[in-house]
Amino acid sequence: MPNYFTNKQNIREIGVFVIIGVLNTAIDFTVLNLLIIFFGISSPVIYFLFKTFSFLAAVMNSYVMNKRYTFSHRGENLKTFPKFISVTALNFFINVGISSLVFATLSASFTFNPFLVANASAVLGISFGMILNFLSYKFIVFKKD
User: Residue 133's closest CA among 24, 48, 50, 12?
Assistant: First the structure.
């Protein structure tokens, strides 16, 4: 492990993953906030649905960008996509589950602005899933043959 961060390829992958992650996060927040702005947020169930849609929008971008640019994987989609879906399902429960739990807890306990609570909750959910995503994509989904 000590040599991991001195390897130029690994450093490049982490850097590109972070850049794509920022883009995916922007997609996630944009979709989430547009849904909140247009439809309002009246309950934790509505938040869960909105967060699910925003997560899926970011995930679609993530597959294409990480496959092509982060890991430069040229393998067949028939091999990588099922693995990606499995990893994404786990990350869905982490990301959307944590953010929905935080939203439900904060919105029931305090009188914060729901828009602020929704975004703070999303940050926590996204943060927990990032490390899992990188390691899973590198060593499972887009593993070099």
Answer: 24
